[in-house]
Design brief:
It contains 10 helices and 11 strands. With 398 residues, the chain is α+β, with helices and mostly antiparallel strands. The protein is globular and about 80 Å long.
Amino acid sequence: MKRSIVFLLLICLVLGLSACGKTKEADADTNNSSAAEGTGTGDESSEQQDMSDVKPVTPEIALAEDGSNALEYYAQFIEVNDYKGIAYTPVTVEVTDSDVKNYVNNFLQEKATKNQITDRAVKDGDDVCMYYEGHLASDDTQFDGGTGTIDSLVIGSGSFIPGFEEQVVGQMPGTDFDVKVTFPEAYRPEGSAGSELNGAEAIFHCNVKYISETVLPDYTDTYIAENTEYENIAAFETNAKAELREQKLSDAESEKQNEIFTTLVNNCKLKAVPQDTYDTYYNSQYDLYAKAAKDNGMEFEEFINSYLGTTLDSFTAYLNSYAIGTSGQVVLFRTIAAKEGFTVSDEEYNEGLDTAYAQMGTTYESREALEEVYGQIIKDNILLRKTMQFVLDNAVEK
């Protein structure tokens, strides 16, 4: 399932960029942590175009089979301005001593060993292995998802619900103790799995098995020579600087691209999206999750509730938001492609389809079956890639 999701995101070229803004409808909460663990939040605010009024429509002017009226056709949906010569801020790349120090520390952390400590009490910041068993305080009922053993919990990390980790501090390994907490009122979306715990008081019967203590190896020429391909610390750190520089250059390129495409998106005005394009992206995303539900032997709504921790209504809102945003991006780049005369050859398309089937074929009975769902998306991906590179190549430094 993970492979399919990753590939779908690749061919849809979401890349964290919702074309011409985001819809105001809430995204589905796809968090699937245990009942004892906290939920995450993300700030996805945008200064881009308000998309709440953008809808899928059937255009008055149909697109000709040969695409000869593409510019007139796409003008019904979007106004594209200033995609050539977009200015971006250049980023200076420098590897500092602090960067190298962090690189070395990360290397040593990867090579570290763990000691199990059982002869002292837990302190804030300790990494503990512990058992917990959750019961509702009202009737001592053991609830689903609230019992288990966690191999690594860093006390003070906020991984568990508020108030839980603080009560582990001071406890001796091997000793039974209770943790009393109250679940947040908005712990889970109403109607989803775990929502019955919203605002509930609970008691967790706990036992810390041990505290994990990290022991770093000695950073010496001998250790480096015996555990890496480098003869000594000097050679190891020379390579570290080279790797860090490559990573910083890659990060700088990503930052450049994000700035350019954010400007590009802000320069456009999306009026609507084609109904057929909206349907393609809505149905492909739905098909992905429907197949995942089938693979897990579950009904679709049950899968959405259990695996994604959200309601069917919220998930449907997410699909709509996804289809609007992605269709808007597709319309934007199809318009630029039409202006510049970019097309997708049969050879490029077949190569893309072969790649898709190699990665997703196990969930489809034939190459043709996959093509029926993703054929247009594959074409869009190739066209978008060409067009995006053109915009990058024509950008200029501020």
